Amino acid sequence: MANTFKVVNFAAEPNTAGANSGAAYDVYTAGSGVTAIVLGLVLANIHTSQITADVRLVSTTSARGGNNDVANGTSVIIAGAPIPVGSSLEIMSGNKVVLEAGDKLSIDCSVADKLSGTLSIMEIT
């Protein structure tokens, strides 16, 4: 199995305003045969006033059976997090999130095109 470190940058997302607007931006989707470990996610406010941000893990993982018999769930990692003007927010500080093939990490913002950031991952293939 190969481990590959990757960075995903986004300049101004999402392109439609409104947390829970249904227009979330998919920052990363784990490809076929890939397990990805999220190492860090930094979100920056590029607006002239405070914004709020949501981060979700949208899973396509099938039911496993037993005590963890959940399929195709969406988990909220953070909801309505305020980011002041000229500030950034580190979401994954010291924590890890696993994405299996087809799972995706999505963001939403209270103001269109005013959230910038960097996602650091390790892909296992």
Number of helices: 0
Number of structurally distinct domains: 1
Topology pattern, helix = H, strand = E:
EEEEEEEEE
CATH topology heading: Jelly Rolls
Q: Report, as a whole number of angstroms, the end-to-end distance.
A: 5 Å
Q: Over the alpha carbons, how many angstroms does the gyration radius reach?
A: 15 Å
CATH class: Mainly Beta
Shape: globular
What's the total number of strands? 9
Beta-strand level of the residues, as a percent range? over 45%
Going by helix content, strand content and strand pairing, the class is mainly beta
Seen as an oligomer or otherwise, the chain set is: single chain
Any low-confidence stretches, pLDDT <50, length ≥5? none
Gross CATH architecture: Sandwich
For the largest beta-sheet, the strand count, sense and barrel status come to:
5 strands, antiparallel
Mean pLDDT: 88
Helix content percent band: under 10%
Walk me through the topology:
Layout: E1 3-13, E2 25-29, E3 35-45, E4 51-58, E5 74-83, E6 88-90, E7 97-99, E8 104-109, E9 115-124
Antiparallel strand pairs: 1-9, 2-8, 3-6, 3-7, 3-9, 4-5, 4-8
Folded structure, characterized:
By secondary structure, the chain is mainly beta. It has one domain: Sandwich (Jelly Rolls). Helices cover 0% and strands 54% of the residues. The protein has strands at residues 3-13, 25-29, 35-45, 51-58, 74-83, 88-90, 97-99, 104-109, 115-124. The strands form two sheets. Strands 1, 3, 6, 7 and 9 form a five-stranded antiparallel β-sheet that branches. The relative contact order is 0.43. The mean pLDDT is 88.
